[in-house]
């Protein structure tokens, strides 16, 4: 109620709240929902857009904790469910973040009471309100037995990872005709050793029958060996999570999901390639392929101009020229890992990447393997051209073959950098000036076979100048 009054500065609105009929709820005796009148009143005065987003959260069980990663994924779910209203001059993700902050201010979410102040939780009575509002349209299944109670009106269905819930979903289409969300929880990894395996018949039912109305599908950490060939039926799908599954390849038909915005393939270590026509997914905004077995990127990645998240960019043999495709992806932010830098031939291709204008939080640069035609000057020019945005927080350089680092490595302008790793830079004879990085908290220097001296005053007095700094040194 305090949050509602805080957001309502007009005295007439306060009077309206005081005289609301909703207060009479506390005098009603057999009230099924047992909703606190003040809380129900707070909900009634929410803008319609916030009402929809709040009700959607009933898909999560009580006491669910939203860490930083889950907060971002919650906004993606709202976006995929069509719950966010576009605003001119703002990315839809920014609108979602504003919605979440509004719900926090109004106390529909609160910060966890433990030491991690970044985690959000929903109080039990607030969760009860969300459940009451969503009614039979939202259903959480923590046990396969719960599916017997699945309402025919259900539109959102979430299930607990690791339970045999998925294996009991046969005949799901006979119980609910218009399922829009099928979501595995928790959103983060639980690292299951024994992943439930779906029969092919059930897998085809999920994709071909249930999939007709699905906008959100998560089979994360499920032991599915393959994705059905035909996915054309899933024309409304916007969110697909196949993280940490046993999928070895994606069918070409996935390229017909033109409304797909989020594709999560993290930890699919057996996935060797993406379909050749992958660039047809022009609405794709977030692509997580970290921990996969990809050896190259599909053609024409530069067509995916809406991409904001691209965790990895892999340069295959003779593919060094494709670095310029990254330059077309001007909205990139968050973490980015570029591997196969040893395959770059022309420094001009790297100059077109223009990482300075991409608001990356983490940058990993991997050269990979040995090469006999190493040119120290060219190597330094390549690394010079890969200079990132000043907001970078984490930098990892692995396998760099030059003898000197360019001036931007360790430059004082990177005042937000908290972690720096320089690994297997075997030809480097000097270290960058680390003391110019005021926020640095984790430093790792390893595999410098050619090390001669440090260009940093920090080096001889590491343990005295930076008492909060965690350091690992293994120069040879």
Structure report:
With 476 residues, the chain is an alpha/beta fold. 22% of the residues lie in helices and 16% in strands. The chain contains 13 helices and 19 strands. The strands form 4 sheets. An 8-stranded parallel sheet has the order 3-4-5-6-7-8-9-10, covered by helices on one side. A 7-stranded parallel sheet has the order 11-12-13-14-15-17-19, with no helix packed on it. A two-stranded antiparallel sheet has the order 1-2. Helix 4 (48-56) crosses helix 6 and helix 5 (68-80) crosses helix 6 (92-105). The protein is globular, with a radius of gyration of 26 Å.
Mean pLDDT: 85
Low-confidence stretches: 460-467
Main sheet, how many strands, which sense, barrel?
A: 8 strands, parallel
Number of helices: 13
Strand segment tally: 19
Helix content: 10-25%
Which structural class is indicated by helix and strand composition? alpha/beta
Terminus-to-terminus distance: 62 Å
> What is the 3D shape?
globular
Instruction: Compute the CA-based radius of gyration.
Output: 26 Å
Lateral strand order in the biggest sheet: 3-4-5-6-7-8-9-10
Question: DSSP strand (E) fraction?
Answer: 15-25%
List its traits.
476 residues, eight-stranded parallel beta sheet, single chain, alpha/beta, seven-stranded parallel beta sheet
């Amino acid at each position: 109620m305090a949050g509602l009054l805080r957001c309502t500065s007009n005295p007439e609105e306060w009077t309206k709240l005081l005289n609301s009929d909703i207060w009479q709820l506390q005098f009603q005796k057999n009230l099924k929902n047992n909703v606190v009148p003040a809380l129900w009143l707070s909900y009634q005065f929410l803008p319609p857009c916030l009402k929809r987003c709040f009700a959607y959260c009933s898909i999560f069980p009580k006491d669910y904790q939203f860490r930083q990663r889950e907060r971002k994924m919650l906004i993606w779910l709202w976006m995929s469910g069509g719950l966010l209203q576009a605003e001119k001059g703002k990315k839809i993700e920014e609108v979602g973040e504003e919605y979440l902050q509004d719900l926090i201010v109004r106390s529909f979410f609160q910060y966890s009471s433990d030491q991690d102040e970044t985690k959000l939780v929903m109080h039990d009575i607030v969760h009860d309100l969300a459940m009451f509002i969503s009614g039979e349209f939202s259903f959480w299944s923590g046990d396969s037995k719960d599916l017997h109670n699945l309402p025919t009106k259900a539109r959102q269905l979430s299930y607990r990872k690791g339970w045999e819930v998925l294996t009991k979903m046969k005949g799901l289409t006979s119980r609910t005709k218009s399922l829009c969300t099928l979501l595995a929880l928790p959103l983060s990894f639980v690292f299951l050793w024994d992943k439930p395996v779906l029969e092919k018949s059930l897998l085809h039912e999920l994709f071909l029958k249930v999939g007709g109305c699905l906008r959100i599908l998560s089979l994360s950490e499920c032991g599915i060996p393959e994705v059905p060939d035909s996915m054309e039926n899933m024309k409304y799908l916007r969110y697909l999570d196949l993280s940490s599954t046993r999928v070895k390849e994606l069918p070409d038909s996935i390229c017909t999901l033109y409304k797909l915005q989020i594709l999560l393939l993290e930890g699919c270590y057996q996935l060797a390639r993406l379909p050749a026509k992958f660039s047809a997914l022009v609405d794709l905004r977030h692509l997580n392929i970290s921990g996969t077995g990809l050896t190259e990127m599909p053609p024409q990645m530069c067509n995916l101009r809406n991409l904001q998240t691209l965790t990895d960019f892999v340069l295959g043999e003779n593919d060094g020229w494709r670095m310029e495709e990254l330059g077309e992806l001007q909205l990139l932010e968050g973490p980015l890992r570029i591997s196969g830098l040893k395959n770059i031939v022309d420094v001009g291709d790297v100059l077109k990447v223009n990482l300075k204008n991409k608001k990356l939080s983490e940058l990993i640069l991997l050269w990979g393997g040995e090469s006999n035609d190493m040119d120290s000057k060219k190597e330094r020019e390549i690394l010079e051209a890969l200079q990132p945005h000043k907001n970078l927080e984490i930098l990892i350089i692995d396998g760099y073959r030059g003898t000197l680092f360019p001036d931007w490595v360790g430059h004082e302008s990177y005042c937000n950098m908290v972690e720096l790793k320089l690994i297997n830079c075997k030809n480097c004879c000097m270290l960058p000036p680390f003391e110019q990085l005021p926020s640095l908290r984790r430093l790792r220097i390893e595999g410098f076979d050619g090390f001669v001296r440090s260009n940093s005053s920090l080096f001889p007095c590491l343990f005295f100048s930076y008492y909060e700094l965690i350091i690992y040194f293994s120069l040879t």
